[in-house]
Amino acid sequence: MNVNKYTAVALKAACAAGEIIKNNFNSPVEIRFKGEIDPVTNVDIKAQETILKILEVAFPGHSFLTEEDSSHRCSSDYCWIIDPMDGTVNFIHRIPYVCVSIALMHKGKIISGVVHAPMLCETYSAQAGGGAWVNKKRIHVSPERTLVRSLAITGFPYSVHASAKRHAGIMAGVLEKVQGVRRLGSAAIDLAYVASGKAEAFWEEELKPWDVAAGSLILKEAGGKITDFSGGKNFIFGGTMLATNGILHRSMLELLGGNK
What we know:
single chain, five-stranded mixed β-sheet, about 30% helix, about 260 residues
């Protein structure tokens, strides 16, 4: 993979943050809660600081949208969308499905994306028009054409206590049609797994831009399709997201109540 300057720096930043996560994975951490079940740790903060320092030095005119600092906004043509540690709950419980997600958006379009999972030794990356890769190997979505032979992935929002029955109902409807459903706890990894053919579909609600941005480009460059639940393009900021191998997209939208 021939990386441009943006992806090269994103890879550097993601790997630096990944080292922080890896070095602290089995250590005591400081935890506070942004909501009833929505935690943030000192490792999230340190990883974000490390990423921002690297990106700000390399691209001083760019803006940033980050999970752990609400003061950041996309205020320039080039905007970095960053989740310093996607899967914080997993990290707290010593479950290795944790990653760093970094994407670059230019005038509303994602042009570079990196998802680095340090505990899994997997680094996914993509550039607009350049294909999708993991550890320097090209990846593609699954060619599976039937739901009953497909593996789906889902996740639940932090507001799930107020809507558990509805989410369980949606999952039950999917379970009746597919081979199986998994819940891994990291949306960026979930997207990367669909991109690399490990699963055929991933759906979730109430995701944030930093959960989706990098993985969405990796998925599309691997030949997949991603939309909101209406089949539209508002999946980064719109609150609902379905990612598939493309072949099964219409069928999955129907199961989720979509109209296209």
